[in-house]
Specification:
Blueprint lengths: L1 E2 L16 E2 L28 E7 L1 E6 L5 E11 L8 H14 L9 E3 L4 E5 L6 E9 L16 H10 L3 E15 L1 H7 L7 H19 L3 E3 L2 E3 L6 E5 L2 E14 L2 E14 L2 E2 H9 L9 H8 L3 E4 L6 E2 L2 E6 L4 E7 L8 E7 H8 L11 E4 L8 E2 L4 E3 L11 H11 L3 H15 L5 H5 L2 E3 L4 E7 L5 E3 L3 E3 L18 E2 L2 E5 L6 H14 L3 E2 L4 E4 L9 H15 L6 E5 L9 H12 L2 E5 L6 H14 L6 E2 H4 L11 E9 L10 E8 L8 E8 L21 H12 L7 E7 L6 H18 L7 E8 L6 E3 L10 E3 L9 E6 L11 E8 L5 H11 L14 H14 L8 H4 L5 E2 L2 E2 L20
Parallel strand pairs: 28-30, 29-31, 29-32, 32-33, 35-38, 38-39
Antiparallel strand pairs: 1-8, 2-9, 3-25, 3-40, 4-14, 4-24, 5-7, 5-9, 6-7, 8-9, 10-11, 11-13, 12-13, 13-14, 15-23, 16-17, 16-23, 18-21, 19-20, 21-22, 25-41, 26-27, 26-34, 35-36, 36-37, 39-43, 41-42, 42-43, 44-45
Helix pairs in contact: 3-4, 11-14
Length: 906
Amino acid sequence: MEKEAGGSPPPPTSTNGKTEKTDAPKLKKDQSDVLRHSIVSRQGFGTTGRRIPLLSNHFKVSVNAPDAVFYQYSVSLTSEDKRAVESKGIGRKIIDRLYQTYSSELGSKRFAYDGEKTLYTVGPLPQHKLEFTVVLEESFAKQENCSPNGGGSPHATTKRSKHSFHSKTFNVEISYAAKIPLKSIALALKGVEADNSTQDALRVLDIILRQQAANRGCLLVRQSFFHDDSRNFTDVGGGVTGVRGFHSSFRTTQGGLSLNMDVSTTMILTPGPVIDFLLTNQNVREPRNVDWVKAKRMLKNMRIKPRHRNMEFKIIGLSEKPCNQQYFPMKVKNSDSANGESETVELTVNEYFNRHCGIELTYSAFLPCLDVGKPKRPNYLPIELCSLVSLQRYTKALSSTQRASLVEKSRQKPLDRMRTVTDAVRNYNYDDDSMLSVCGISIEKQLTQVDGRVLETPKLKVGNSEDCIPRNGRWNFNNKTLWKCTTIDRWAVVNFSARCDTSHISRDLINCGRKKGIQIERPYTLIEEDPQSRRSGPLARVEKMFEQIRAKLPGAPQFILCVLPERKNSDIYGPWKKKCLSDFGIITQCISPFKINDQYLTNVLLKINSKLGGINSLLEIEHTKHIRHIMDTPTMILGMDVSHGSPGRSDIPSVAAVVGSLHWPLISRYRASVRTQSPKVEMIDALFKPVDDKNDDGIMRELLIDFYQTSNGRKPKQIILFRDGVSESQFNQVLNIEVEQIKQAFQHLGEDEIPKFTVIIAQKNHHTKLFQASGPENVPAGTVVDTKIVHPRNYDFYMCAHAGMIGTSRPAHYIVLLNEIGFSPDDLQNLIHSLSYVYQRSTTAISIVAPVCYAHLAAQQMGQFIKFEDFSETSSGHGSVTSSGPVPVPELPRLHKDVAGSMFFC
């Protein structure tokens, strides 16, 4: 070990609860970086609704040593050749070995390591900077060799494996970075935030729990961990297994510090024989039917363990020839030589395992070998000897079948979910950790009791001003007509599915429509796809179908009913929608009926009626003009979301969608504006996009003009903005980048008076759950909680507007960032509750406000307009900077003027 000579201990802890850092660069702000808005504090609590006792999956945490201080250190891990260590697994083993070897030099301090570049201790290490040399045996570092390999001796290889003579040396540098006082958490609980130190302290506590899980051999995925226990595995097909684990995070709440524990699920490769994985993944029965080109791509970097060696290896490829034909050179002693000289002989992999290992290969003798060596020194293993190591993450996108299977098999009823998380907290004894014990942290073992309220269900109006009263968030149109119905006299049916009878479908649709008040004439024509066309690609199939449409129709129809061959993820969907909505301006409704009944046809008609300008149902408060803060002042409601490409596809542009309300004072009608932007960028950059002094090509200009044209020439004086998909670290960007863009777009239209804003974040991706304290069912529709488990300072609340029929309901988490309009807590919660009942595609209350659902749907649907191949020439390197500057992001085609103002996304 080498230590830096001299050096002073870290400076004393600050008493103001702030994290102290050394040598931190000071950032300079220009005028554009000045924060114009700050996040509002809580403005009271709601009082309306029926009281209900609830439980939540938060576990109270006590801190008996609030003056404890965490010391943060930067860690640098390099190998002998000065290369940085990238693997988290190796990093943890190096740090573990460091503690075992140099405990006294580290002051016998316990530590928490994040697996990458940061280490935390309670109390300072002996010196500011420490340097160590750590040695790992080769088997420990998973760098073993295994015969047969190029130029290797089987006997020598076996000897090395048994005695682990080879080792690897790493250099470890530990440098002091900051002090993180636990007192910052106590201050945050009182509503006083101390810079970022509260989040820093919570992060250390989270890392301590993650390290516990890592020491138990768990797979770590962000804030979740997964045990290698087959009882938690569920097969979802294609060689993929869902594994149930736990999310854990410490949170500051009004009720004090809590541990939020929830059930979590991730995807892993199904452990077991490699050949079984390949057969399942490719859906073939025999090894001889495996597509080895596809298999090579799939297997690369997977970790395997052969049954004849207690070691793990990583697959780098496949052999060019099967085992019985793949030769490799091996040195053996020459029995005829007096001085024991060795000679090189050529053996096949099959011969080697038969002669030297006593293993007779069966089917894999005729299959390629797995290469687990290095690029210039292959190391071959027969497939039948190898099994996939457990807990290897599967990060590719799931198919629709796999996704459906996962959802179905991972559901848990409320009582089961409560029992699962409570047992986890009791059985794993998190507060037994030595670092937590030093801080005096103890965790209660029961769910937190919470007071909830069930808001009054909004009443609806349907045809002929008839009342419609939802029951537990649900209603129907049995013996009822829609509020405002369209008349359909020019329409057509096109059929891409060979199994559907379109004449039967059209008759049933006409009959069902008449019952709901929609007058539908017979379709002008029914067009069947030419069977020969089904062999073509999706673009060609759509083009040929439109050739028939142009030949058989005298003019543009009101809408086209399109029957697709697959229920989900049909490759025809994107090209068809683009052709109809962008090229020709024709409203279209796609279906792929599995079972046709009145409920199915009613759901289809709800979408068609909305797209053609109808209204299925109206809130009674809209009809009677009793929406507080909205009915007397022109108010625009916005929903904003960004859809990103699938995991691992950083070359696919993100799609930003903003929907805006129309026909004020209604809050049921919306239209969307959509743009592409740089991949994986969450902030919307096209809200205001000036071309020159007079022209703006941004999203907001379109929506503001449409609001004006549909609201009797009134301009919005108030804007209620719902933003989906952002984390807490991005709240200030929403306020000071996106809201400012909206204001600039308003001013660019020549308006001096800027609207008042209420800005609300809508989150579904969180882990707080609510349970009834007195029953096994999900919480009732309309349940809201704004005490105890909410933020100690911020203005947030949880709401279950919908009725969870299966599984456990997930409440929406709403965080109010700005409230210039001045909504009271009751007014705001009741407005949000009402906005969960105006989603025109459904006859149930939805789990999050309709503007957000519409924005999410519009981003997803418009993203399918153009498949990846359309971006291929410009997509590589998205977001990168070349000598000529950033690669431009290709634009989505704009909607045709005839459908630009419609609710096409319904």
